[in-house]
Amino acid sequence: MSSWRGHSQQSLGGLTSHLCRALFLLGLFVASAWSVTPTPQDCLILRPPNSHGSSVSCFSAPEFPSWLPGDTIHLTMEFSNLTQLPAAALHGCPGLRELHLSSNRLEKLSAGLLLPVPNLLVLDLTRNALADLPQGLFRASAALHTLVLKENRLQTLQASWLRGLRALVHLDLAGNCLHTLPAGLLANLTALSTLDLGDNQLETLPPGLLRGPLRLERLHLEGNQLRVLGDDLLAPQPSLRYLFLNDNKLTSVAAGAFKGLKWLDMLDLSNNSLTTTPAGLWASLGKPARDMEEGFDLSHNPWVCDQKLSHLCLWLAANRHKMFSKNETRCAGPKDLEGQLLLAVVGSQW
Ligand SMILES: *[C@@H]1O[C@H](CO)[C@@H](O)[C@H](O)[C@H]1NC(C)=O
Ligand SMILES: *[C@@H]1O[C@H](CO)[C@@H](O)[C@H](O)[C@H]1NC(C)=O
Ligand SMILES: *[C@@H]1O[C@H](CO)[C@@H](O)[C@H](O)[C@H]1NC(C)=O
Ligand SMILES: *[C@@H]1O[C@H](CO)[C@@H](O)[C@H](O)[C@H]1NC(C)=O
User: Fold this and answer.
1) The pTM is what?
2) Which domain holds residue 282?
3) Are residues 221 and 233 in the same domain?
4) Tens-place pLDDT, residues 43-90
5) Which terms in the GO cellular component ontology are assigned (predicted)?
6) 3-class secondary structure for the chain?
7) Are residues 251 and 304 in the same domain?
8) Is residue 188 within 6 Å of ligand 2 at its C-beta?
9) CATH of the domain at 250
């Protein structure tokens, strides 16, 4: 069970830990309902036994707390409508490992914000109003492994914004307004394993985008405006296991686009504008080589079920046990096959 620290515990001194806990929680709700300056009562301070430091969680606090315990390793400050953080906000907690700031209204961060916290591992800025990042923000963030910038207002990125990130494993840029990306964005992110670019406005990607990471495993590109998947994009990442390309406008996937992807376990191409796929595209995926662990989804595309689709249909026959949304994977043409299940056509035609 957790032990409790902080001012509230002092004021509740002699009570048993159970009662103490109940009152503390009650106090937390009451305090957050009427206080106007951030006091420790706006926040919950935990110091679990055997942990390396305090964990502070504040919700709906009106300002960033100025009294953080010096041993804070985990700080959550969410749903508070904060528009800015003091430049020196983190000076008092050099051991900070996780900083969760989602669901505020942050528009700007100061370049020196993270300098006092070189051991930071996780920075979550989900659902704020950031349109850019200051140069040098991560210059002391060599340990950071997770950076979440999901649902902000980024329209463009500069590779230099990420300078200093050497250990990044997880980068989430989903739900912004990104139109283009710089080719060298990931050049120095050798440890990157998950990249989420979903739900942006990307129409094209620079062919060299994925050069840099040594072993990317998960790539989210769903919910963009991509029209073409070329031969080059995925080539540097043969270890890719999860690939999401659904909800784009793909009309064309190059014959070599999946070449070398021997370990792909999940492929989502649903809800695009594909009418056919070129011969050879499917050669490295699934059976006969190796079963995909998760499966694949080709539904909601206007497939034209003529002879040109026979390569795909033969592959489907061997991999149907891994196919999602079978009932929504139908022919849009030719006329006499319109509305037919692709799998039914596989059986009857090829
Ligand atoms: C944040 O703003 C929203 C919308 O204006 C409001 O409903 C909510 O109560 C605010 N939260 C806090 C903690 O001030
Ligand atoms: C990548 O690393 C090289 C060598 O350390 C450096 O010169 C370059 O500026 C870095 N690029 C970015 C975008 O961080
Ligand atoms: C297909 O994708 C569009 C966005 O590109 C989305 O609005 C729509 O709901 C999706 N349809 C299905 C069936 O998922
Ligand atoms: C398959 O799709 C058709 C047409 O969209 C629908 O009428 C039918 O209920 C679906 N069947 C199943 C088993 O979902």
Assistant:
1) 0.87
2) 229-350
3) no
4) 889 988 888 899 999 988 888 888 889 999 999 999 999 999 999 999
5) extracellular space
6) CCCECCHHHHHCCCCCHHHHHHHHHHHHHHHHHHCCCCCHHHEEEECCCCCCCEEEEEECCCCCCCCCCCCEEEEEEECCCCCCCCCCCCCCCCCCCEEECCCCCCCCCCCCCCCCCCCCCEEECCCCCCCCCCCCCCCCCCCCCEEECCCCCCCCCCHHHHCCCCCCCEEECCCCCCCCCCCCCCCCCCCCCEEECCCCCCCCCCCCCCCCCCCCCEEECCCCCCCEECCCCCCCCCCCCEEECCCCCCCEECCCCCCCCCCCCEEECCCCCCCCCCCCCCCCCCCCCCCCCCEEECCCCCEECCHHHHHHHHHHHHHHHHECCHHHCEEEECHHHCCCEHHHHHHHHC
7) yes
8) yes
9) 3.80.10.10
Residues 299 and 182 reside in one and the same domain: no
Asked if 123 and 36 sit in the same domain, the reply is: yes
* Structural domain ending residue among the three candidates 201, 225, 249: 225
- The protein residue with its alpha carbon nearest to ligand 2, atom 5, reads 188
Q: How far is the CA of 70 from the centre of ligand 3 (A)?
A: 48
Distance from residue 222's CA to the centre of ligand 2 (Å): 29
Whether residue 16 is predicted with pLDDT greater than 50 in this model: the reply is: no
Does residue 191 sit in the same domain as residue 253? no
From 225, 250, 277, give the residue that closes a domain: 225
pLDDT at residue 133 is higher than 70? yes
Residue 301 has pLDDT above 70, yes or no: yes
